[in-house]
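Re: weekly structure request thread

Next one in the queue (104 aa):
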Amino acid sequence: MDWIIDLFNKLIEFLYRLLITLIDMVKDVFFWAFEQIFEAINIMLSWVMGFLSPIDISQYLTGLPPEVAWVMTAIGVPQALTIILTCLSVRLLLQLIPFTRLGS
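Done, posted below.
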């Protein structure tokens, strides 16, 4: 009769280890998918930065007279451009998420 109890205990231990292994597999698949998404984002960002690298904005900004640069700073053009670029980035990210295209 002891061999039945021993066999049952081995079965319980096997099922427990199987459950732990399956949980680890699901976590690994989730982490792998997350890593692949970030790798794709990294590739896209490097592509965009490579596309924008020939454009040198600093040459245009240094070519402005000091008075014009002062007026642009006084009326808040740098802050406005920052806000606009942030809004465009957020809008792009929201467009990439399914079911969040609320009329745009």
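The chain has four helices and no strands. The helical segments are 2-52, 57-62, 66-75, 77-96.
Next request, please.
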